[in-house]
C-alpha cells in the first residue's frame, strides 16, 4: 500500500463507492483546477452486495458519460433492469 501525505485539498470525498466516486468525478469535471481527493479504506475491486440504482440516477450517469455502457451491460428481468458483473 502506498501512503501519501495530504497537505491541501479543495474537496475531500470520503468513500469510493458509487456515490463518492460519482461525486468526485463530477466535481473534477466542473472544477478541473480543483484538487479533489477521494479517500477509500478498502482495496478495489472488492466484494460488494448487490449494487443497484434508481431511475433518477440516470441523469448523473449520462453526465459522467457512462450511461450507455451501464445500459449495455444490464438486462431486464420481471420488469427490473439488472446488471450482472464479476
From TrEMBL:
Protein name in UniProt: FAD-binding domain-containing protein
Keywords, sorted A to Z: Monooxygenase, Oxidoreductase
Keyword Oxidoreductase found: yes
InterPro entries per record: FAD/NAD-bd_sf, Flavin-dep_Halogenase_NPB, Flavin_halogenase
Domain of life: Bacteria
Lineage: Bacteria, Pseudomonadati, Myxococcota, Polyangia, Polyangiales
GO molecular function: monooxygenase activity
